[in-house]
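Cont'd.
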Amino acid sequence: MASTIQVDIVSAEEQIFTGEAYMVYAPAIQGEIGVAPRHTPLISPLKPGEVRLDMGEGKEEFFFISGGIIEVQPHLVTVLSDTAIRAHDLNEAAALEAQKRAEEALADQQSDLDVAKAKAELAAAAAQIAAIRKIKKK
Amino acid sequence: MAVGKEIKTKIASVQNTQKITAAMEMVAASKMRKAQDQMFATRPYSERIASVVSHVASSNTEYRHPFLIGREVKRAGVIAVATDRGLCGGLNTNMFKQALNLLGELDEKGIEFEVVTFGNKAQGFFKRIGAKIVATATHLGDTPEMSQVIGPVQVLLKEFEEGNIDVIYLVGNEFVNTMTQQPKVATLVPVEPAPDENYSHHWDYIYEPDAVEVLDGLLDRYIEALVYQAIVENVACEMAARMLAMKNATDNAGAMIDELNLIYNRERQASITQEISEIVGGAAAV
């Protein structure tokens, strides 16, 4: 019986697949790679595409990924799949948007940072809560 | 009988409030279960990626990624994770207290800082205390998505790469169990990978195409995964805290209704007694 290799496909949001396969095909950044058991350790980014698992007896499993990273160890393949489509420009656009939101939110900001004042306010609020608790207990 | 009409109205209003808090408690309980599931679902990814990072960090590559190198701290970045909505007990307040301790320490050392906020409440709080917010994300919902996290985190990572900030902290809540949530502060960058226990052998990965590109992608994702996990964990915390707060509110409303009923009955009794004594007094006079 031919040997198999442990395959884990995970995304940040969930575990997608875990199990044994005879062969793993993945769309690495420099072209598709095939990983057989006892492959030498390798790590590479993945392009959007299809991860194909040879399950033996002619059965195959397909997983579409929108990019990610593949890590290969002699008896273990880990595919860290992206759920969000990312590209340098897209990331930058998202970053700019987040910054814009911050600017909008801060449009009517008045004073400079005053940690001491904020601490005092919090302490006052905490005291109020404590007082309310005491009153309730009576 | 017009006795205690005000008390009756008051009882009805407290009963209405109690209905609302009881409903909110149940909603929070069911959402908490979902949030907890999501929290556990994110674990395999961050565990796997953490083990890869720790392996890469302990292997002898010629290239050291800037995220792995600590440097003297002149400016700091803080990522604060809070809830979008209130009515969840002291969850946010406790987190803000912890964040203020951190900011106070930084302030004392003369370190300037900028803040990235997740959640309405964090945005509101840091805005009110006048912190410099460089990026923000709100309305994350009950099931946050990775795509909502990337943008704001990228802002700080870019600042770090450009050398504008020298350290990135993450402040959020840790889900201990349903009854306990704890605020926590963690250092995100520089990455301090846990020592790889399996690393007794001296092998290294083949990096394809090269170490620089692989590590760039890997570390970005690692940090984003940590932030994403903190956000998902915070949702679970929010639901647990709200459930508890609403349970207390429901109990308190119940106690209040009992008390009001007692007062109402006493008043009713008093008015009946008074009426009878008036009739008896009237009869005696005739």
